[in-house]
Amino acid sequence: MENPLTLTQENLSIISDRIPCPKYDRAKLSMGLVHIGVGGFHRAHQAYYTHQLIEKFNGSDWGICGVGLRKADQKIHDVLQKQNGLYTLIVKHPDGTIAPQVMGSIIDFQLAVNSPSSVILRLASEETKIVSLTITEGGYNFKPSSGEFDFANPDIQHELEHPDDPKTVYGFLTASLKKRRDAGLRAFTVLSCDNIQHNGDMAREMLLAFAQAQDRELAKWIEEEVCFPNSMVDRITPVTTQADIDYLENTYQIKDEWPVTCEPFIQWVIEDKFSNGRPEFEKVGVQFVPDVKPYEKMKLRLLNAGHSVLGILGAIHGYPTINACIEDHTFRTFLRAFMDREATPTLDELQGIDLAAYKDSLQERFANPNIKDSVSRICSESSAKLPKFLIETLNENLSSNGSIQFAALVIAAWCYYSDKGVDRNGDALEIIDVMEGELHQAAVQTKEDPLSFIKLKSIFGDLSGNQRFAQVYTFLIQTIYREGGVINLMQNMLNSGFENRDKN
Ligand code: CS2
């Protein structure tokens, strides 16, 4: 048995006898990319594409400097520092094949809370051409129901008054863009990679709102100089488990403290508008298009919403993973009915895409038995996700008098989930949401007022005032509380027992 080796640059030549490792000289890479928010997704997606580009097409200008803005990023900072930015990407195929590979594209990592000034300098450096973001749906600092920038956030207040002591992404972007302007450098591109429709437009709108309040002249420069391409990103990346870490050590004698696992599927569609050059990502399969909007809407409303449909209903029902949900005929059929009857009618025309095949492929991806994507990951931060993934679809169907019952059931189930905090077997649910307290408070009042949950305006807007929705929702929520579950309702809906009730 070989010696377990810690994944570091020094050990790479030995490790490369065990699994594929970077073949390029990492010391020679420039840091053209700075990425804010280095989670599992970034490491399975953008950093993977970048690794491929560097390795196969000599994209040596595009090494990545990771940046963490939150205290919680300390752990990834420490691990990546210790491992010289190296980590293992473990691709898990549906047939059971497992393909681990060491990624080398991240060459530095900086933690903003430790040293805000060095993060500003990195962003302001001439070497930096693109600043990409995965800061989560909640990180954009907009009010979910109105879409306006939330100036009440104390961190935003702080950085408006202290531009040299930024806290949020907006403070860091303005502080560094100001330095670039003053030094006569070109602006970088801001490339959002979050699951938000029109993510680039959103980043632009929010950054400009902030910059206008901080420094009007600078805001004008940003408006003219910075490009914010919209992009659609896709790769299912479950939370890393101890079993993944053990697998590498037991099978390959590699000690990697934080590998990433993912499915084989990967997709990135980006609008081709950049302020300061870009990697030739098309060489490694990225699609550059003039308008990404139809693609992102399709992905958010089918894949992400589909995940939430399964995750929330599955959590209450006691399923731990998305593939366990999909194996259940009722869940699988319910998901398809939601996609066909409620999500699809709201999509724009998609040239060259066979939607039926896309939906089939989602079902297959969700069914991958080796991914074991936990429903708790999917349900995490639902207060930021559902307004984007599900509620917009629901509102459009209310306007067009389309079907609403499938989405309404998910929202009613989310209320029950937030109230009870246990599944149907009485086992505690792992609820991760910044609004957990407010959601619980609103949900526990359901018995007195069936609409109490959907009166949370910051999430649902005026939904409780919509008579048709209120009627459907009241019926559903009362049935869930009476029956202590969702499965009968799901079956009834599929047998069309409820379909007609849903029409005005
Ligand atoms: C998931 C996404 O956050 C979620 O709930 O739907 O993380 C999803 O797995 C990715 O967007 C896949 O590309």
Give a verbal description of the structure.
The chain is an alpha/beta fold and 504 residues long. The chain has two domains: 5-289, NAD(P)-binding Rossmann-like Domain (Rossmann fold, 3-Layer(aba) Sandwich); 293-503, N-(1-d-carboxylethyl)-l-norvaline Dehydrogenase, domain 2. The protein has 21 helices and 13 strands. Helix 8 (199-214) packs antiparallel against helix 9 and helix 17 crosses helix 20 (467-483). It is globular, with a radius of gyration of 23 Å. The structure holds D-mannonic acid. Residues 195, 234-236, 304, 307, 378, 385 line the site of D-mannonic acid.
Share of helix, binned: 40-55%
Give a short account of the largest sheet: 5 strands, parallel
Q: What name goes with the CATH superfamily of the largest domain?
A: NAD(P)-binding Rossmann-like Domain
Strand order in the largest sheet: 6-3-2-7-8
- Point out poorly predicted stretches: none
* Ions and ligands: D-mannonic acid
Instruction: Tell me the count of domains.
Output: 2
Mean pLDDT: 95
Query: What does the radius of gyration come to?
Result: 23 Å
CATH architecture field of the largest domain? 3-Layer(aba) Sandwich
CATH fold-level label of the largest domain: Rossmann fold
Q: Quickly give the structural class.
A: alpha/beta
Cα-to-Cα separation, first versus last residue: 70 Å
Count of beta strands: 13
Binned strand content: 5-15%
CATH class of the largest domain: Alpha Beta
Number of helices: 21
Form type: globular
Family: Belongs to the mannitol dehydrogenase family. UxuB subfamily.
Domain Mannitol dehydrogenase N-terminal: 31-283
Keywords: NAD, Oxidoreductase
Domain Mannitol dehydrogenase C-terminal: 291-473
